[in-house]
Structure formats: C-alpha cells, structure tokens
Amino acid sequence: MLRGKKILMIVTGGIAAYKIPFAVRDFIRKGAEVKVVLTPSAEAFVTKLTLSTLSKNEVVSDFYNADGSWNNHIELAKWADALLIAPCTANTLAKMVSGTCDNLALAVYMSAHCPVFIAPAMDLDMYAHPSTKANIEKAEGFGHRIIPAQYGELASGLVGMGRMAEPETLVSAVEEFFIHQNGEQAFLNKKILITAGPTYEAIDPVRFIGNHSSGKMGYALAEEAARRGAEVILISGVSAEKVSYPSIQLIKITSAKEMYDEVFKYYDKVDIAIASAAVADYTPKEVSPEKIKKNDDRLSIELIKTPDILKTMGEKKEQQFLVGFALETHNEEEHAKAKLQKKNLDMIVLNSLKDKGAGFKGDTNKIQILTPNEKKSFDLKTKQEVARDILDFIQLKIQ
Question: Residues in domain Flavoprotein (predicted)?
C-alpha cells in the first residue's frame, strides 16, 4: 500500500531520532518515496548524510542553503501524501498547536494539507504533564493522527511512558491509513481472536513445563489481519515477537488456564477465531511454593490435563468461523481430520515436523489447509506469506 506514496518526515531534536534511519529504510523497502526535514536541534542526534543516503533525497534543516538557495516549504508540503513528525518533542508539539513558526520544519507543517502523523517522544514526566496531554488533544482536534508513545526504558534511565514507538510501528500506522483510504480491507468491521505462542506450566517458582513455540506464526497472522482492517485480539504466551498495528490488542498470558480465561472473555463477540497457540496438554497437579531441591536421583511429578481451549471453543461456537492448528509427526492428515471433526472446527491448518523448514522457532512454514470437504497444500514459505495464504482462504469462506 505504500508503493509510490510520498512520505515527508520531520525529525525533531530528541534522542529517539536515532531510530529514524530504520523507519526511512522500511518506507523505502515498501516502495515509498521519502523526504526528510530536520529541525536545527535534530542535527545533534542524526546526520543529514545518513538520512539522505537512505532516502535518496536531499535532507534540509533551514530555509536557506550555504549557496544562498531557498528551500521552499510550500513545495515540500504540497509534495507529500503524508507527513510524519517523529520524534515529536514536547517543545515542537507545543509550537505546532500554538501556531509558532520559527523554523523550516514548522513552516512545512503549517503548510501541509495531507494527513499528519505525530509520534511523541519525551521523558515520562514530560509526557504525563497536563500541558502535553492538552497539546496532544489539540493536535487530535486538528485531525492529526497520534502514534502513542510506548512504555519502556528512557534516555534518562527512568522506565515509563514516553518512549517513541518503534520504526515498524511508525511505518505500519501510515500504511494502515492508506489501506483504509483505498478501501482494501477485507476484514473491516471484523473482530478476530488469535492465540499464539507457548504456555508455560509452573512446577515451582523456577521451573516449568513448556514447548518450543516462538509465537511467530500467530503474530504474523495478527499483523496480516490488522493490515486487512480487522480489530484483532491477540492472546499470547511468552514470546519475543512484537506487534506494530494499533488495532491489535495484545494480551500476555503464561499458563493454559490463563489463556482459557482470556479467550472466553472475548470469544462470544468475535467473528473469526484462530487458535495457533501451542497450549500444553498437561500441567503439574501441585505447584511447589518453594524451589525443589536436587536431593534425589529421581523426581516424580503428577500431571493433570489442562483445559481443552479449542474443544470448548468448538462447543460454544455460534457465529464464529473457527480455525485450529495441528502440528504432527506421523499420520499427519489422518490426525488433522480427526481433530477437525472432534473439535467442531471450520478449518484446520496442518504442518508436519517432518517437513524441512516447518515447525517451531523458524521463519518459514509449510502447511496444508483442510476443511470438512476440501484440502489445499502450499509450498514452503515465510510465515508472513503463510499468514496471507491462511487469511486469503478464510476470506473466501466467509464472503
């Protein structure tokens, strides 16, 4: 959706400016054209040479160049399909909403008629200050789109809200706007629940029973569903993966019981449910409150079944289109078909650990999709491409 789009970026004087080259690179990779304007103080944090090399366009920061030529702020503003101000410091934000225009960047901003995206970045007390909150509300009142700051470690060493959204989030926010604008959203007004990652079943405060799931497949599905306009509820076990679309509600859990509880908080309100999580089948009957000492040669742990989340989803299914996953090592298709019927699924995604490049942790997968009446096989692909194949199939079924 970004191919051929003209993205104008204004970079202000905050430490988060070091992330901007990554955003420029991602915009370029997705086919956008990029131009960058720096505030004078931004040059202390990121160089014109870096940004001009990545954007393949001259980077400017003042009305006049060394040779006396003029940088036309009106032409820059008219050129853009979208204006992204990132990082946006408290100072620049205050100037924007008050009409102060004392540098080239602000003159460009005040001349823009395209959509404006603002990614605030500042220390936590500044971000929480009433004046900043009021200025963000004013900017939203102008019709600007705020890409919220995130929670994390800040340059001051403090931890809290104020960290600029990651580069991929900046790019996704702009991309999502153009998807909406072009009406290419197959899942617009659809709610999709997706489970992802492993569950960890505690043995004691230190040890657990788990599996090798990374969550990559579930997160790829969530990102692709959001890109197509869905409101996504992603319930995830422990995973290093991240989400970038604001329309993804990420709920972190650890155990199968926690995942069960979260799934059924939302299940009756969704249109599609995709259970891609690798949920533990068994959990210790008793969890030791203290670390178990290594005193004996053997340790016996009594295990009991975890709640069968997918089976319960099938039993409670009303309007939902329900998708399950099957990871098998033998008699793959036979087991997948049995699971499809037993758990009242509309569709099941099968992958085999025998297929090279499929399974846990990797960036690729090789799948078959089975329904009660058909089967479709796919070649080895990246998990992002697999997510597109799965959602394409679902899209055909629910139209």
Answer: 5-176
Catalytic residue among 57, 211, 295, 373: 211
Pair (113, 176) in one structural domain: yes
Residue numbers belonging to the annotated binding site: 281, 291, 307-310, 325, 339, 343
Calculate the dihedral angle through the C-alpha atoms of 199, 202, 203, 207, rounding to the nearest 10 degrees.
80
Boundaries of domain holding 111: 6-182
Q: What is the pLDDT of residue 67?
A: 80
Regarding whether 93 and 66 lie in a shared domain, the answer is yes
Residue 211 falls in the annotated catalytic set: yes
In this prediction the pTM is 0.63
The domain boundary, picked from 135, 160, 182, lies at 182
- Say yes or no to pLDDT of 93 above 70: yes
Say yes or no: 216 and 242 in one domain.
yes
Task: Report the binding-site residues for CTP.
Answer: 281, 291, 307-310, 325, 339, 343
* pLDDT tens column, 139-184: 999 999 999 999 888 888 889 999 999 999 999 889 888 876 665 5
